[in-house]
Amino acid sequence: MADKKEETTENNLMQRKGRYFYANGKRKTSVARVRLYEKGKGDIIVNNKPIEEYFFGTLIGNIKSPLKLANAVKMFDITVKVVGGGVSSQSDAVRHGIAKALLEFDPELRSQLKKAGLLTRDSRTKERKKFGLKRARRAPQWAKR
After folding, report:
1. Domain 2-115, CATH among 3.40.20.10, 3.40.50.2300, 3.40.50.720, 3.30.230.10
2. Is residue 11 over pLDDT 70?
3. Which of 19, 23, 24, 97 fits a disulfide with 32 by CB distance 3.0 to 4.6 angstroms?
């Protein structure tokens, strides 16, 4: 019975109409499209699953950090579509998206979020492989004789 109830709330949240604040978050090759719905209960749905099913332990805390900083943990229902990368970079992309969406909600949060480093996009990505090398920087072994 509880599973059925959870499924209906997830479906209602994903099909929910109404006012929301939207932002994209990025990290490495991960892109998260985040929607913050006003007057929520604090539910977070990631790719049609509750956040506890999609991410684990420390990553959930990482994702909720902008909400804790803004004292808005129970103010919004959040839906996220995230693609690309691994689980860790996806969580960072979601965090970045939530922080940017909070900025859409209240521009006065900018100084707090900026100071915590949540608005800066971490632009470190994998370096491309160069010709003549085995990897990005690894050269073939050199022999003197």
Report:
1. 3.30.230.10
2. no
3. 97
